[in-house]
Amino acid sequence: MSFSHSRLVYRSKNMSLLQSILTLVIGVGLAITTADANTGVGDRPHLETYDHPGHVPIGRPGFGAKITRTIEVTTKETESGYMLFEPDAIHIEQGSVVRFVIHNIGTMEHEFFLGSFDEIEKHRQWMRKHPDMEHDDYNAVSIPSGETATLDWNFSDKTNLEFVCLIPGHREAGMWGVIMVHDHLAPKSKG
User: Fold this and answer.
1) 83 touches 112 (CB < 8 A)
2) What beta strand segments (E) does the chain contain?
3) Cis, peptide link before residue 168, omega less than 30° from 0
4) Number of alpha carbons in the 13 Å side-chain half-sphere of residue 57
5) Are 153 and 97 spatial neighbours (Cβ–Cβ below 8 Å)?
6) Using one digit for the tens of pLDDT, what is the confidence trace for 94-121?
7) Residue 166: which of 111, 107, 106 has the closest Cα?
């Protein structure tokens, strides 16, 4: 075997080894990325963020629980271009199971999405990159124009959280509000 032929065989073996290493590194990288996307460990918002360690507690779905309060919310657009929830500030007593009844009297589809301020900001950024993404979260509902949707939520933790429409541009147009969950509420005045 000549010197140049043996160098060629040596290079070929090294290239094959390098290709194998690169294939392994890419495969591991894809596996980690896929795991992150499915578990929410990466930057993609995920289902049931309210139920994962390290997230701000916002309560949990009210499946099968006795509804202790119903809150009517209206979504609308104004002639000047604002998009609004009414009311946009809600006080709730800790331990309440609330049924939100959301009426969309506007001409556009909207969402009602509950979350911590940080989670909503992450999700809003994700929605900018993926504007056609539809929500399938227990803490969110879509409300087509002229329709009504409901969302039941158990406010088991004292916290402050946000409700928002995450359709790109809607929050920026004013479609957001806050919920303050307290361990007590002031009695309603009579008269």
Assistant:
1) no
2) 60-61, 69-77, 83-86, 89-93, 97-104, 110-115, 140-143, 148-154, 159-164, 176-182
3) no
4) 10
5) yes
6) 999 999 999 999 999 999 999 988 888 8
7) 111
